[in-house]
Write a structure and sequence with these properties.
Beta Polymerase, domain 2; globular; five-stranded mixed beta sheet; alpha+beta
Length: about 180
């Protein structure tokens, strides 16, 4: 598991990729949020940018699967989370993952969960640094097992997400 120091190009890369999604999804797309650790400027992260499109209609998103695949994405469907559409983009030369995309229909509580967590870490540097410490410990304990790495952080993330949702001023189902 490789954690990299924050890279200044992560936000511009996320914005460029969001524009590619906008071209493909048209009016069905409401917004693309940059979420995950690469959206937090002062912590280390796996160098994979997480994007979260919010769409008007999941059926229309599903119908766009061929166009999304044409962008180079591997379409995984719900991939274990009802209401989500998960896609990943890898570098064709190296096989390294570049983007993880978690798309939801507007109104999903998952949108709130992701945005609250991101915004909370942006507003609470001490929590963000505690999250980085969790990530580093998980990476050291499970350098070659991404599922175990994620599991090692899970309890901390769930607890922090509860704090984040209690704090977050967002509107439920915000796109």
């Amino acid at each position: 598991m490789t954690l990299a120091p924050h890279q200044a190009d992560w936000a511009p890369r996320a914005a460029r990729e969001a524009r590619r999604w906008a071209e493909v999804l048209g009016d069905n797309l409401l917004v693309v949020h940059h979420v995950g650790s690469t959206a937090i400027p002062w912590i280390a992260a796996k160098p994979i940018i997480d994007l979260m499109p919010a769409v008007r209609d999941l059926a229309a998103l599903d119908a766009a699967e061929p166009a999304i695949r044409a962008l180079g994405y591997d379409w995984r469907g719900e991939f274990g989370l009802p209401g989500r559409r998960f896609c990943l983009l890898t570098d064709p030369r190296t096989g390294a993952r570049l983007f993880h995309v978690h798309a939801y229909q507007a109104g999903s509580s998952e949108i709130d969960r992701h945005l609250a967590f991101r915004d909370y870490l942006l507003a609470h540097r001490d929590e963000a640094l505690a999250y980085e410490a969790q990530k580093r410990a998980a990476a050291a304990a499970h350098p070659n097992d991404s599922l175990a790495y994620n599991g090692a952080k899970s309890d901390w993330i769930v607890a922090c997400q509860a704090r984040a949702l209690a704090w977050w001023p967002g509107v439920s189902g915000r796109a």
